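Hi there,

I know you've been waiting on this one. I reran it after we fixed the sequence typo, so this is the corrected version. Both the input and the resulting structure follow.
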Amino acid sequence: MSVYVDPVMAHGGSKTFRWERSCHMYADTLEELHAMARAIGMRREWFQAKDKLPHYDLVATRRTAAVEHGAVEHTREQMVQFMRSHGGGSQEQANLFGGE
């Protein structure tokens, strides 16, 4: 079982997330995901319980911390494959994350 992070990319930010560059942290289990989030100082209310990919958005410094705590670095393509293999996301949704 593992926790994963995809590359930091420009996502544009939003009203609730002011950083323009971020990545996703996701895991094989929610227990592992929340444990890693606690280890790197994330708040539980930042968790995004999305059907296609339950995750936390991380800025570059939090991504570095996650990797230092054992998170596995994924490419965008690996993240899309993970999402598909775990029953999340249509082809259209995968395309939003750079899938082909």
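Quick highlight: Residues 90-100 have pLDDT under 50 and may be disordered.

Best,
R. S.
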